[in-house]
Hints:
This protein is mostly helical. It has helices at 5-8, 14-19, 26-42, 46-57, 66-78, 82-92, 98-113, 120-133, 137-154, 157-170, 175-191.
Amino acid sequence: GMAKPDQIHGAVSISEAVSQLGNHSAPVIRQLLPKLFDGAMLAQEFTLAEGLLQAARKMQGLYNEPVYLLMMGRLALAYDLNQQGFDYFVRASAGHDLAAQRARIALTDIALQRNDFKVLPALSEILKEGVKQWRHGYEALILRARLAQVAEDLGDMPLALAVMGNIRIDHPGTAEAVLAHERGALAMAAFA
């Protein structure tokens, strides 16, 4: 029957929501499916998440889009398939939408965990492109924070300082802005 407003949040189980997915029109499914996937991943319901990805494969406008590739990458990571996850994120990062930016951040985080200096120049380019494409919101801030970190690791102090300056101007009051201020002061001292 009709869900009362207070049932919309939390009360409807994620599996119930998934089972209702087919009742919606294609455009609604395209919007809903990634949100349900997020819910399934949060609940660690990985079988449900897999089922959603199987449904996504049949969806025009979802299959092989950055949002789909990002979901595939996240599920791979949940199963400790880090290299597969990384490869999906690289493919997703070729896009220009929010999912592509999230994929850039995800692949950067994997690469930084590996402590492999050789990948830093490529990461720097991937992040610069993301920073250029995405100016607003949380993802823009994280792309910049990662770029500042990578630039610093590469010893590219002019870039690191420029990005930290942007973080302080465009994202005032955030933890990243405070950190950028401190790192910037340290970098200036080291650079002088």
